Amino acid sequence: MTKDIRTPAIETAVIEWREGVPRSTRFDDLYFSREDGLEESRHVFIGHNRLAERFSRVPAGGSFVIAETGFGSGLNFLAAWQTWEASSPGENACLHFVSAERYPLERKDLTRALALWPELGEYADQLLEHYPAPVRGVHRLVLAGGRVRLTLFFGDVLEAWRELDFQADAWFLDGFAPAKNPGMWQEAAITALRSHSRAGTTIATFTAAGEVRRLLAKAGFTMRKTPGYGRKLEMLTGELPTVSGDGSIDGATPTPSIAIIGAGIAGSLLARNLAKRGLDVTLIDQAPQAGTAASGNCQGALYVKLGVEFNDQAKLGLSSLLFSQRYYSQYGGHHWHPTGLIQLAYSAAEADRQGRFTARNDYPPTVLRAVDADEASRLAGIPLQSGGLWFPDSGWLEPGKLCRALVNHPRISHCYGFRVHRLTPCNGKWHIAGNGEQDVVADRVVICAGHLSPTLIPLRNEFRFRTIRGQVSHLPESSLNNPAVVLCGPGYINPAHNGTALTGATFDLHDHSPVLSAESHRENLSMLASMVPSILSGSAEEADPALLEGKVGFRCTTHDYQPVAGPLHDAAGRHLEGIDLFTGLGSKGLSYAPLLAEYLADRITGQPGCLPLSLARRVATQRCLKRETPQTETIGA
After folding, report:
1. How far apart are CA 461 and CA 101, in angstroms?
2. Does 553 share its domain with 567?
3. In terms of domains, do 359 and 493 share one?
4. Are 129 and 145 contained in the same domain?
5. Least packed by Cβ within 10 Å: which of 38, 287, 483, 604?
6. Bond into 351 cis (ω within 30)
């Protein structure tokens, strides 16, 4: 019987171990062959999709996409990954593996299963390190330094094929046997494969069931039976026929050059992502180095505020948080400090909101859990008057230093001190003009300039953006009862680092001054004392706010406080060729930026998307258009 689990958690597989092999109690079937599961995977899926040969032909900067029904133990994925590494594809080529799983294995079961294959140990270790919590929806795992990308969909297979954006080069039809798990092999699920396949796509499955063969043939695949593995006498393999004159090859070469305007956290992450995929990137900023404006704070908290209702806004926030935690982990010990974070129930209203949140939602405790005041105080190492929500894998970053580390890549050229004046399309390229500077010319442009982005869009007065000033205050560690974790409420306070802790930030709707303000420092101190009454020493409370150091930054927000990432469209809905917008991250840029940089890089390179279609619509530029604006001419590069 299916267990009633509230979103966003998803029910995990229940495993029994028989003769050292995992068996699903729900489907009464084994996850892989007793004889040799790895050899079975190689025989059925690797060999019959001709992967070693095809991988070796993927060009530099290209990609190859495998899609799978039923991730299970991940054995097929690891076998494909091992083959990819051994086949020497082109430089910066990427293997994309897209898989749907309704009942994911718990980490402990996955660990035990993969321990059976020591020769896959280096790949299994990376998978286990990044394996996501059992949360519904899409999880993007970036592995092998970006040479391998795993898109895991935890949920029903039909929903996966409706929500995911990809075109497969090869299919692994796995999952449990049709007689044991008929839902995986229903006609709608098989038919959906066609819309995610390009001409020449191959397909292989362990089953030889006549109904499966008939449905695949009906979907357009040319199918045949071939000898199976071990006790299975036959299996099915096939291909989607190519059309006459189709000159497509595995893994098309991506766009040759791209310019990114803005070297804050969004632009720096996107530049690094694209460079690692083999694109040449020119990073443009008016400052003398990356990470100086709103992304230049010495500390920044990694958090999102998840809604009581698990709607698209909450899904985007959760997906962004989980991806960013995985992404920043590679910078642990340098620019990333995973101390954990508590969102405090700092007021009666917030305590009520958090109560409704926990009553309506079921989050795995590895993602977040409610804690009372005693446990919160223990975690924080200081007395707290309220409990809250504990995020064990969150923490804080050094954003400015991180930006400068990200842009240190041989494929990223820096164009600093360049104040962009105008963007002009000419002869299939974009010309970026500065005041008195030589034009920068690129095939594609992404505007990532924060609150300056609206002034650079080559469509005037058509978008709803707002600039909001924010000032942070730097507090000497000696003035604090220093917390061991990040504490959030109406503002936030980070653990002290190098003798200083950052708190803030103000939310100034009508003040646009870039100058530090004593009144803003006073507001930050008042907020902090109200949120955590025990945190300031007597000397800090009596100190002159005008003597504090800090920083002023300007957030770019949208009318609905959700970010924007994707191609530009005008008021008539027409696409502007070769130009994208990446802005509107507000005060949550550190959380949103890694996932949205991954999404934009997917789009720019034509690789499978890391966002489900419902969330891609959520960040689309069209929603920020002023609907009453008259139509304008489309600009094409």
Report:
1. 45
2. no
3. no
4. yes
5. 287
6. no
| Sign of torsion over alpha carbons 407, 408, 413, 414 | positive
- Sign of CA pseudo-dihedral 306, 307, 309, 315: negative
> In the predicted model, what is the mean pLDDT of residues 456-471?
88
Rounded to 5°, angle at Cα 499 from 494 and 501: 20
Name the H helices within 399-448: 399-406
Q: Are residues 272 and 384 in the same domain?
A: no
The continuous run of DSSP H or E covering 473 comes out as strand 465-476
The radius of gyration of the chain from alpha carbons, rounded to an integer in Å, stands at 26
Residue 546 lies in a domain: yes
- Report the side by side order of strands in the sheet with 486-488: 369-371, 388-391, 341-344, 486-488, 492-493, 500-504, 465-476, 549-558
Q: Which amino acid is at 5?
A: I
Distance CA 168, CA 239 (A): 12
Q: How many C-alpha atoms does 34 have within 13 Å on its Cβ side?
A: 9
Domain housing 107: 15-239
Whether residues 207 and 72 share a domain: the answer is yes
Region of 144 please: left (phi>0), alpha (psi -120 to 50) or beta: left
**What global pTM score does this model have?**
0.94
Tokens linked to 437: 């500077």
Q: Nearest 5°: CA angle at 413, between 411 and 415?
A: 165
pLDDT tens, position by position, 551-608:
999 999 998 989 999 999 888 888 889 999 999 999 899 999 999 999 999 999 999 9
Examine the domain organization and report whether 472 and 415 are in the same domain: no
In 25-86, which ranges are continuous DSSP H helix?
37-41, 51-56, 75-86
> Domain for residue 527, yes or no?
yes
> Quick check: is 510 in a domain?
yes
Q: Check residue 538 and give its pLDDT.
A: 65
How many domains is the chain built from? 4
Task: Identify which has the larger pLDDT, 512 or 387.
Answer: 387
Instruction: List Cβ neighbours of 134 (8 Å cut-off, separation of 6 or more).
Output: 9, 10, 11, 12, 104, 106, 154, 364
Is 534 among the domain residues?
yes
In CATH, what number is assigned to the domain containing residue 70? 3.40.50.150
Q: Note whether 20 and 103 are same-domain residues.
A: yes
- Using the 3D structure, point to which of 543, 558, 573 is the last residue of a domain: 558
Convert the pLDDT of each residue in 315-358 to its tens digit.
Answer: 999 999 999 999 999 998 889 999 999 999 999 999 999 999 99
**Order of strands, sheet of 257-261, starting from the edge strand that comes earlier in the sequence:** 412-416, 280-285, 257-261, 444-447, 575-583, 564-569
- Helix (H), strand (E), coil (C) string for 484-506: CCEEECCCEECCCECCEEEEECC
Q: What sections of 245-360 are H helices per DSSP?
A: 265-276, 312-328, 348-360
Helix, strand, coil percentages for the chain (3-state, nearest 5): 35, 30, 40
Gap between the Cα atoms of 50 and 37, Å rounded: 19
DSSP 523: H
Residue 354 · residue 370 · CB < 8 Å: yes
Domain boundary pick from 392, 410, 431: 392
